[in-house]
Amino acid sequence: MRFIVIGAGEVGRLLARDLSGLKQDVVVIDVDPEVLARIEEEIDAMTLLGQGTHRDVLEQAGVSGAEIVFATTPNDATNLVAGALCREMGARHVAARVVDPRFFRTTSPVERGVLGLDVVMCPARLASSQILTRIRRLELPFVANITEFSAQVVMCPIEGGSRMVNEPASSSLPGGAAVRAVVRDGMLRGVEEIQRLDVGDQALIVSPTEGVTAALERMGRVSSIKRLVIVGGGSSGQSLARSYDTKSTQVQLLEIDRARAERLAAGFEHVRVLAADGTHPDVLRDLQIDTAQALASLTHEDELNLTTALLARQLGVPHTFIAVGRTGYTEIFEQLGIDGVVSRPEITARAMGAFFLKALQERHTAIPHSHHAMAELMVPKSGAGRVLADLPLPAQAHVLAHARRGALLEVDPKRSLEEGDALVFAALPRLLKNLVRLVAGQG
User: How many structural domains compose the chain?
Assistant: First the structure.
């Protein structure tokens, strides 16, 4: 298969490297000959000097036979125009990187079907989703993003005194969340096999990302993050604050621009927005930052985020998180004592690749306290038209989620599968190759 990457910056370079590692034909287009020379030295890919919005350049790259085009230049307009042009010229799939959150119709980091493109992704919101995952992992044994970062699978331990003890595993949860499986005595079982929850059970909950906190509260799970401070009222800061806009966690969002802070305050119910410079030591001391359990610095300046997080640790905050706009520094910054460092280019490249390449990569995530693993598979054209009940699933394979165009659907055995649907399974690792064949209509 042929893949075209337009833009050889950080995101484009990472994508080209990953695609080349999968032994695929890769063409990288950029206007900078020096950047392309470095690509040729590092990656087994063909390079092409030119504008990704020019028809002759795209024709030379073989766009009419391309499986996927990734538009990753620093310019949103260029990415959107190039993407739309590639679709018109015959590319099967197109993804575009779009930085400006005002372009998006929703608060999601990923949107489908815009201008005829398969998907557009916002790096800042993707980074926020990943930081949210890292924070939740402080208190939960398992947290995983699924369905284009629009939903999560989380493991909720059932402890003594929990309101869910002796409750049906199928009890309704708010916001479209549901318990889809339970780990009991080291065995993962479908929710239909568990009549009532018991102490020691580990419930696997599937929920829209912004509804996880409410679902955990319904399960009786009390968060240990009583106070969270977010520095920076940009797209990342807003997205993270929105996920904690509940009564259970005191969230303060610090935005240096007073007018912007006032506008942001109107959009939250419980989050407190303050017009303050959260990168200044005196401001953090005045806020008694040492009483916060976590701080996330999400400004657009890497150095400010790093120094703010280090200062917060020095002032007594036990957990700090930052987003950065460069690659290769994650491990170095975490060695300085920061709990979570998320690179916007890295998470964007990973998300773009994962969106399309499920069929090329056998990736799965181990589920704690069990022998099972979780895998998300995309329904190809050959697997469309059947219903879930038609899949002869092995006994140790369970459907955790069914999503369409990034939105969770109720897991209904009678629901027809469409091309591009996402199915999330919990299964023994040895069964995953068979599941890939079944989803593709080969079993």
Answer: 4
